[in-house]
Amino acid sequence: MKERQLHKDTKVIHEGYNDKDFGGSLTVPLFQTSTYSFDDARQGERRFSGEEEGYIYSRLGNPTVHVLEERIASLENGGGALAFGSGMAAVSTLLVHLTKSGDHILCTRGIYGCTFGLLKIMAEKYNITHDLVQMGTEEEIEKAIRPETVCIYVESPINPTMELVDLHAVVNVAKRHGLRVVVDNTFSSPYLQNPLSIGADFVLHSATKYINGHGDVIAGLLIGKEKDEIEKIRLTIQKDYGGIISPFDAWLLIRGLKTLPVRMERHSSNAEKLINYLKKEKLVDEIFYPFDPDNPLYEIAKRQMRAGGGLISFTVKGGKEAAQLFLDSLSLIKIAVSLGDAETLIQHPATMTHSSVPEQDRLQMGITDSLIRLSVGLEHAEDLIADLESAFRIVEASVSERA
Ligand SMILES: *Cc1c(COP(=O)(O)O)cnc(C)c1O
Q1: Which of 67, 77, 368, 390 has the fewest C-beta atoms under 10 angstroms from its C-beta?
Q2: Mean pLDDT computed over 152-179
Q3: Tell me: the pLDDT tens digits for 177-193?
Q4: What is the pLDDT of residue 88?
Q5: Plot region of 127 (φ>0 → left; ψ -120 to 50 → alpha; else → beta)
Q6: Which residue has the least CA distance to atom 8 on ligand 1?
């Protein structure tokens, strides 16, 4: 049969696995093993020297994990991938690989809280510094580059404000200055956005979120443009720092990934229905969603994303008190951090995910006390809207009581 590129919807189910290699097992077998026996001492020698391919010990490789890595590499149009025990293990391994003492990292103004924590450790202990900058235009990015800068680290959409960064602009600047580009693609998933195809060098995922999609695994993935570089990271930093994934969690991710396209379509269509509802709600001030035609960055969203995804943020009138009462008045929607699950989750960034960010920085990033982040799940949109509606009416009654 002629080689033809399969669609992502097909790749999530078949890529990187041949059932005939595993006795016809329809699903990928779980290799719950720590080590592998050699036929003889010489084979052990050949495996260790790299003369012969094959498994040695599960920190260095495992057949179940291998299928996951092949599949995600293909979904992100990368040359290779590595799986980790958490998103943060993927972030830390990559940053250790890319930097040495004295280097500088340029980051988007909003980055995941623990990534920020890691950058602080790197600055304090290893003299690897960073700047968090607004990346609205190529000029803005260019201005922030220093002689010591080695990479640009980007999240888009940015958590929790859902602000977008133009990935084409970042790549253009990076190419001019010989810098590597890293994109944390967790919020979009590989189904909605593929930064490597735009010219990024590395993509990271907290697979805990959309890739697994069922709220029962913590895991991370790193995909690189070049297979050789990924294999080098595997045999150096990943092997020696040790933040690998367990075979069972890899198996669960393979299972969750099969429905990623179907889930992302539903998350996105549900989110659009909720946006339309929220726009009519008088207690809502502002709404932030990539694929909202009223979003000033809608053109950027359409250029780099396939759909808007399941995350919405919005502000409510009445500040922190109203925001907290609103959360407490919901019943179907759960108050929880994390995102990308079947269940709709809601959280208050100022007092939860971003509570450790100094107030001034938080406000500068647009994370006010009125901001609420919603991870729209897979339930029926009408049931979600009914839950939101009844909570808004409780908030309204409480406000008029006090007036
Ligand atoms: C959750 C998250 C992480 C960290 O991933 P863990 O799997 O929790 O370690 C990193 N980046 C983003 C954008 C996230 O949402």
Answers
A1: 390
A2: 97
A3: 999 999 999 999 999 99
A4: 98
A5: left
A6: 87
In this structure, the strands spanning 371-375 and 334-335 are unpaired
> What is residue 57's three-state secondary structure?
strand
Distance of CA 256 to the CA centre of its chain: 15
Ligand 1 lined by 88 (C-beta under 6 Å): yes
Cis peptide before 293 (omega within 30 of 0): no
Per domain, the residue ranges of the chain are 8-30+61-101+143-152+176-257, 261-402
Angle, helix 260-280 to helix 381-402, in steps of 10 degrees: 30
Q: Among this protein's residues, is 241 annotated catalytic?
A: no
Averaged over 72-80, what is the pLDDT? 98
Degrees, nearest 5: CA angle 56-71-97: 65
The single-letter DSSP state of residue 39 is: S
* Alpha carbons 219 and 236: distance in angstroms, whole number: 20
Contacts 24+ apart (CB under 8 A), 28-33: 28/64, 28/67, 28/251, 28/254, 29/63, 29/64, 30/64, 30/247, 30/248, 30/251, 31/58, 31/62, 31/63, 31/64, 31/247, 32/247, 32/248, 33/58, 33/62, 33/247
Q: Which of 36, 46, 55, 59 is catalytic?
A: 59
The CATH fold assigned to 261-402 is Aspartate Aminotransferase, domain 1 (3.90.1150)
Q: List Cα–Cα distances, 172 to 131, 166, 181, 196, in angstroms.
A: 19, 10, 10, 13
Domain 8-30+61-101+143-152+176-257, CATH 3.40.640.10 — does that match?
yes
Q: Which of 208, 245, 338, 373 for mutating ligand 1's site (highest number of atoms within 8 Å of CB)? A: 208
Q: What is the pTM of this model?
A: 0.96
| 59 is annotated as an active-site residue | yes
Report the C-alpha gap between 372 and 316 in whole angstroms: 8
| Residue 184 is among the residues annotated as catalytic for this protein | yes
276-316 per-position pLDDT tens digit: 999 999 999 999 999 999 999 999 999 999 999 999 999 99
For residue 86 and ligand 1, the question of a CB distance below 6 A is answered with yes
